Amino acid sequence: METPQSRVTRSKRSAMERSSHSTKRRTPRNSSPPIPSINDRLAFLRPSRELLEYYRKKIAEFDEEHEDLVKRLDKYKTTYEEQHKLQWEMRQREEEIKELQKALSDMQVYLFQEREHVLRLYAENDRLKIRELEDRKKIQHLIALVGPEAGETTYFYKEPPHKVTIRQRAAQHGDSQQCGNIKSSKTGAPRVKSKSARVGSPTTPEKYQKDNQTLVLQVEALQAQLEEQARLAKEQVDTLLEDRRIHVEEAHVQLERDKDKIKNLTDKSVIPQREFSAQRKKSMQFHCRYICCWDLYYAMGRGGSHQPKPYLAQLRHQLCS
To answer: Which cellular component terms (GO) are annotated to the entry (predicted)?
Structure first.
């Protein structure tokens, strides 16, 4: 049974033969025969109802295929926009994580600085305590040399009073006598040695024992400071090593991620180029067939009197050439 396509092919072939015979009769032998146009070829066609229905179905199929392609493109566009949005949000989160890590490192540095300051305060406190102990020992030594006067009592405060009151007393006979002795010593009279000078500094083992206690306290304070400094230095080194390990791991992960991204982009750039070339070829063939079908449909439907629109003819010439 003869199909519509075979009918079209046979009708085209007969039209071309008739047009070629007519041009051969009209043109002289020296000039080459001109190629008949598509409209001239379509003018000789006498399509049947089945052929028109066939091309009508073909055009409907092409329209449905075109709409399907447009929907797919819109779907791909939406997916690409969502993926781009997710990538942008992930990049922002990575920047926030980097800023937080930097702030954490700064806080660790400030913490170590404050701990060093606290250790310096502890050392100063120990030094003041040892000095206070030495001052008390000196006061006890001076009291032991001079001896307390009758009716006098010495009290030691752990903390100094809020107010200090200094009472002045009138000059007594003993004070005037001491002043006279000082004046007489200045004029050349024999000096009177004080009681403390007569007694002299003690060289008993008790003094060495007190000095040993002070030295022991100083050594203990220095040992405590040294232990705190060693502990602080060890913590600083551990923190720096941990930061270095974290940075190395992050750099390694980022490097692997960049390598995977470069590889994926390279693969994606090669595959679309091939697909684009194939799809471009198919699209050109599709548009060429689509336009030819429309021209054939209108020409056959109107008995060959239809003239194709200029833009369709230009587009057909660009695609089919």
So the answer is: centrosome
Q: Can you spell out the DSSP letters for 116-172?
A: HHHHHHHHHHHHHHHHHHHHHHHHHHHHHHH-PPTT------SS--SS---------
Domain assignment present for residue 188? The answer is no
| Number of domains the chain is built from | 1
| Residue 26 pLDDT exceeds 70 | no
Query: Percent of the chain scored above 70 by pLDDT?
Result: 55
CA atoms within 13 A on the CB side of 209: 4
Q: Is residue 193 part of a domain?
A: no
Q: What is the pTM of this model?
A: 0.43
Alpha carbons 238 and 31: distance in angstroms, whole number:
98
Q: Which domain holds residue 226?
A: 47-146+210-320
Residue 90 token pair:
């992930």
Give the Cα separation of 286 and 264 in Å (integer).
31
Distance CA 291, CA 299 (A): 12
CB 42 within 8 A of CB 55: no
Model confidence band, residue 78 (pLDDT cutoffs 50, 70, 90)? confident
Whether 176 is covered by a domain: the verdict is no
